[in-house]
């Protein structure tokens, strides 16, 4: 068994790598990373220097900003043969963007978060810029994370909401009671709706995609400006999202055989 100190070290390194990924492609300063991870700046610099020695992070000599390193690319390329579903999702995303006119996204659950893996721009000229590849949100925040959370078991939802407090960073709209209300609405409709809870005027909708065990492991979502998400349009767009999410789920199950 690893010691508590070793476990904390692994947790700090993991937090740093995840945080750096959210700053791609521009990279992050040491101070940025210290603030985001709530670690002392000297500690962050020491960890980053060790990670750089292993090729896991890279530092721009001019700007001093940190980015993910070449060794992570190599490791990711190997892992992609098992975990990457963007090849199957590409056509589904293109269809979704074409049929709705909105930008379409594929996100994956990673522990208590979702991370955006792929995107396809829609034809409508006004777009929301909340989502981009690599961005992470806690479960229950943004339409993808809400869609996944709503399809988890009641026990897992209760366990998650009992140990996290999203209000500190995301406000009162992300209290436990508010999230539970949106979970109930998502379960009733089958799809989730984010009515501009992250950025004013930016709406999103999401639908869960399930793995071969029936677990909500990914989500398809669309984002756009508020005027594109009128109440009368939501059922049709939601039905389309559910149809495409079911299609991707079936493709994944077929590949898993």
Automatic annotation (TrEMBL):
Location of the HTH iclR-type domain: 7-70
Protein keywords: DNA-binding, Transcription, Transcription regulation
Keyword Nucleus: no
Statement: the UniProt record of this protein carries the keyword Transcription regulation: yes
InterPro entries reported in the protein's UniProt record: GAF-like_dom_sf, HTH_MetabolicPath_Reg, Tscrpt_reg_IclR_C, Tscrpt_reg_IclR_N, WH-like_DNA-bd_sf, WH_DNA-bd_sf
Domain of life: Bacteria
Occurrences of domain IclR-ED (ranges): 71-254
Protein name as annotated: IclR family transcriptional regulator
Originating organism: Rhodococcus chondri
């Amino acid at each position: 068994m690893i010691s508590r100190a070793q476990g904390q070290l692994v947790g700090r390194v993991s937090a740093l790598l995840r945080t750096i990924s959210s700053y791609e492609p521009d990279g992050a300063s040491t101070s940025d990373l210290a603030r985001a991870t709530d670690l002392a700046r000297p500690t962050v610099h020491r960890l980053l220097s060790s990670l750089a020695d292993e090729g896991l992070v890279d530092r721009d000599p001019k700007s001093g900003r940190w980015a993910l390193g070449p060794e992570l690319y190599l490791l990711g390329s190997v892992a992609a043969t098992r975990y990457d579903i963007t090849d199957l999702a590409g056509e589904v995303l293109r269809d979704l963007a074409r049929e709705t006119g909105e930008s379409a996204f594929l996100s994956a659950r990673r522990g208590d978060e979702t991370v955006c893996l792929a995107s396809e721009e829609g034809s409508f000229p006004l777009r929301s810029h909340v989502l981009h590849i690599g961005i992470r949100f806690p479960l229950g925040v943004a339409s993808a994370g809400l869609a996944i959370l709503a399809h988890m078991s009641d026990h897992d939802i209760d366990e998650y909401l009992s140990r996290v407090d999203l209000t500190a960073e995301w406000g009162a709209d992300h209290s436990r009671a508010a999230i539970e209300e949106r979970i109930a609405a998502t379960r009733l409709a089958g799809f989730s709706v984010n009515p501009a809870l992250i950025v004013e005027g930016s709406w999103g909708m999401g639908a869960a995609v399930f793995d071969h065990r029936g677990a909500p492991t990914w989500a398809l979502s669309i984002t756009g400006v508020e005027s594109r998400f009128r109440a009368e349009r939501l059922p049709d767009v939601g039905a389309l999202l559910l149809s495409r999410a079911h299609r991707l789920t079936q493709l994944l199950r077929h590949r898993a055989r």
